[in-house]
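Q: I have 158 residues here and want to know how they pack in 3D. Can you give me a structure?
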Amino acid sequence: MTSIILYSMAGLALLISFSKDQEKSKKSLKIAWNQFIKLLPSVISIMLFIGITLAILDNEVISKLIGEQSGIAGVLIALVLGSVTLIPSFVAFPLGGALLNAGAGYPQVAALVSTVMAVGIITMPTEMKYFTKSLAIKRNVSTFIICVIFTIVIGVIM
C-alpha cells in the first residue's frame, strides 16, 4: 500500500511538473534516468550479495548467530558486522527485513542496521582526509554508543 501511495505521489508531482514546464521536466527525467543507469550495476551487485549471503546462511545459522536466543553475543556480532560493513540504506533495510524473516531477533537486526547506517569504520580514512582524525573518531564512537542505546531500547520494546 505504501508503494502505491508513494508512486502515485511521484506520478502526480511529475504531471504537475510537466504542466508547469515540459522542457525542464524532460531534462530532469533524462538526468534521473542517467543516474539510475549509473546506479544499476551497484544495485544488481548488492542484490546478488544479499541473495548469495541468504542462500549460504540458512535460517538455522542466522538464528544461531543473530537470532533471538543469541542474546548479547548476537547483538555484539551484529554491532561489529554493521560497523565494518559498507552497504547503502536502500539495501540495509530490506536486508534487515529478510534477516527478521529468516529468524534474526529484533535487537540484533536493530544493532546491525543502525550501525550500518551510522558507523563507518570502512569510511574512516576518507572522513579523516576531509575532516580531522579526532572528529572522525569522535563521530564514530558517539554514533556507535547511540546505536547501542537504540538497540537496548528496541530490545526492551520488542
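Q: Anything worth noting?
A: The radius of gyration is 19 Å. The chain has a mean pLDDT of 89.
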